[in-house]
Amino acid sequence: MTDSIRTIPVRVQPSYDVSIGSGLLGRCGDYLAALLGQRKIAVLTDDTVAPLYLDTVTAALEGAGFTVCSHVFPAGEGHKDLSTLAELLEFLSSEHLTRTDCVAALGGGVVGDMAGFAAAVYLRGIRYVQLPTTLLAAVDSSVGGKTAVDLTAGKNLAGAFCQPAAVICDTDCLKTLPPDVFADGAAEAVKTGVLSDEGLFALFEDGTLTADPGEVIARCVAYKAGVVERDEKEQGERKLLNLGHTVGHAIEKCSGYAIPHGHAVAAGLAVIARSAETLGWTKEPIAGRIAACLAKNGLPTGTDFSAEALAEAALSDKKRAGGDITLVIPRKIGACQLRKVPVAELLPIIRAGLEA
Ligand SMILES: NC(=O)c1ccc[n+]([C@@H]2O[C@H](COP(=O)([O-])OP(=O)(O)OC[C@H]3O[C@@H](n4cnc5c(N)ncnc54)[C@H](O)[C@@H]3O)[C@@H](O)[C@H]2O)c1
Ligand SMILES: O=C(O)C(=O)C[C@@H](O)[C@H](O)[C@H](O)COP(=O)(O)O
Ligand SMILES: [Zn+2]
């Protein structure tokens, strides 16, 4: 696009760019027409995002020669399920989209995960683009090609690895986010800091993020892009991106998805940091610093669910293989490691994080 835009390539096969900047939704048509040709495009979004941004996106796409159709479904994790997926697939077929057409996921991580999954399976796969509108989607979910819906047994249990053809992140969308939804994104960005970048973590430590959000997004995306390039299908290194998620996903499930993903990941990160410190797995004391950072950003640092309930819910975790589960253990701010433990050890490990 133009000079004021940050562009980060994700070098998978085929490779794609993440473009980050102000005003990009209004200009997405020309960019996508150059990338995809002027085709039919189905914009899938939720009923909170639609009144804010659907007209802008539709006008930009039509202005660039696309034939546009759109479908709006109810917002929220509670709708990230098989019945909404079926609705999306029926919509795409009712609009007669063909394999040369395209889906655009306009919204947060819920829209991105579901629209991406619909694109991955409709006609056995058509191209899609991510237009993230939450901080969480910008720093994490729009990049890397994990798509999914939840099943009764737990989070993201049906899905596909399917990379987008492009990610266009308009930083102006962050201005309409309620503070608690902004905080969800801060949780994944703080996670990225704990994984790889103490400087990024420090940007969040006083709770008044003064840095350019484009810079925060770019740092998170650059790190994630590298991990995805080295381990697209999560055979090893990519499991690190699940820091805080074993307990986090369990909290989401135990709450009936009333606690949003970012808040649950924050609590899960605080718990595993305390477990790691208590069990002597960290290089230095970090749990207090991580909890303080999360709290400053309006995020929880613990949970009222019992260790037993969380351990039980975590049994459906995708990082479980047979009798073992792979945990992500923070060693210091900026470095973590994978640790495979027998499932039976999960309960005392979680207990150590809740009780420390
Ligand atoms: N695929 C991945 O790699 C990946 C990574 C992280 C999280 N996720 C998934 O992402 C989901 C969470 O995403 P999320 O936090 O974006 O939640 P979300 O998509 O539910 O969005 C949160 C709320 O904000 C609203 N919203 C979206 N954009 C807005 C805007 N610009 N202004 C005002 N309101 C807006 C939405 O309508 C919704 O009500 C979870 O399902 C999680 O599992 C996936
Ligand atoms: O991209 C990844 O890989 C991640 O793990 C990013 C996570 O933040 C995200 O929540 C992901 O959906 C969790 O993956 P899952 O395989 O445990 O469902
Ligand atoms: Zn996550």
From TrEMBL:
<keyword id="KW-0028">Amino-acid biosynthesis</keyword>
<feature type="binding site">
    <location>
        <position position="146"/>
    </location>
    <ligand>
        <name>NAD(+)</name>
    </ligand>
</feature>
<keyword id="KW-0520">NAD</keyword>
<feature type="binding site">
    <location>
        <begin position="173"/>
        <end position="176"/>
    </location>
    <ligand>
        <name>NAD(+)</name>
    </ligand>
</feature>
<keyword id="KW-0963">Cytoplasm</keyword>
<feature type="binding site">
    <location>
        <begin position="133"/>
        <end position="134"/>
    </location>
    <ligand>
        <name>NAD(+)</name>
    </ligand>
</feature>
<protein>
    <recommendedName>
        <fullName>3-dehydroquinate synthase</fullName>
        <ecNumber>4.2.3.4</ecNumber>
    </recommendedName>
</protein>
<dbReference type="InterPro" id="IPR030960">
    <property type="entry name" value="DHQS/DOIS_N"/>
</dbReference>
<keyword id="KW-0547">Nucleotide-binding</keyword>
<comment type="similarity">
    <text>Belongs to the sugar phosphate cyclases superfamily. Dehydroquinate synthase family.</text>
</comment>
<comment type="pathway">
    <text>Metabolic intermediate biosynthesis; chorismate biosynthesis; chorismate from D-erythrose 4-phosphate and phosphoenolpyruvate: step 2/7.</text>
</comment>
<feature type="binding site">
    <location>
        <position position="245"/>
    </location>
    <ligand>
        <name>Zn(2+)</name>
    </ligand>
</feature>
<comment type="function">
    <text>Catalyzes the conversion of 3-deoxy-D-arabino-heptulosonate 7-phosphate (DAHP) to dehydroquinate (DHQ).</text>
</comment>
<feature type="domain" description="3-dehydroquinate synthase N-terminal">
    <location>
        <begin position="72"/>
        <end position="182"/>
    </location>
</feature>
<feature type="domain" description="3-dehydroquinate synthase C-terminal">
    <location>
        <begin position="185"/>
        <end position="319"/>
    </location>
</feature>
<keyword id="KW-0057">Aromatic amino acid biosynthesis</keyword>
<keyword id="KW-0479">Metal-binding</keyword>
<feature type="binding site">
    <location>
        <begin position="109"/>
        <end position="113"/>
    </location>
    <ligand>
        <name>NAD(+)</name>
    </ligand>
</feature>
<feature type="binding site">
    <location>
        <position position="188"/>
    </location>
    <ligand>
        <name>Zn(2+)</name>
    </ligand>
</feature>
<dbReference type="InterPro" id="IPR030963">
    <property type="entry name" value="DHQ_synth_fam"/>
</dbReference>
<dbReference type="GO" id="GO:0003856">
    <property type="term" value="F:3-dehydroquinate synthase activity"/>
</dbReference>
<keyword id="KW-0862">Zinc</keyword>
<dbReference type="InterPro" id="IPR016037">
    <property type="entry name" value="DHQ_synth_AroB"/>
</dbReference>
<dbReference type="InterPro" id="IPR050071">
    <property type="entry name" value="Dehydroquinate_synthase"/>
</dbReference>
<keyword id="KW-0456">Lyase</keyword>
<dbReference type="Pfam" id="PF01761">
    <property type="entry name" value="DHQ_synthase"/>
</dbReference>
<keyword id="KW-0170">Cobalt</keyword>
<feature type="binding site">
    <location>
        <position position="155"/>
    </location>
    <ligand>
        <name>NAD(+)</name>
    </ligand>
</feature>
<feature type="binding site">
    <location>
        <position position="261"/>
    </location>
    <ligand>
        <name>Zn(2+)</name>
    </ligand>
</feature>
<dbReference type="Pfam" id="PF24621">
    <property type="entry name" value="DHQS_C"/>
</dbReference>
<dbReference type="InterPro" id="IPR056179">
    <property type="entry name" value="DHQS_C"/>
</dbReference>
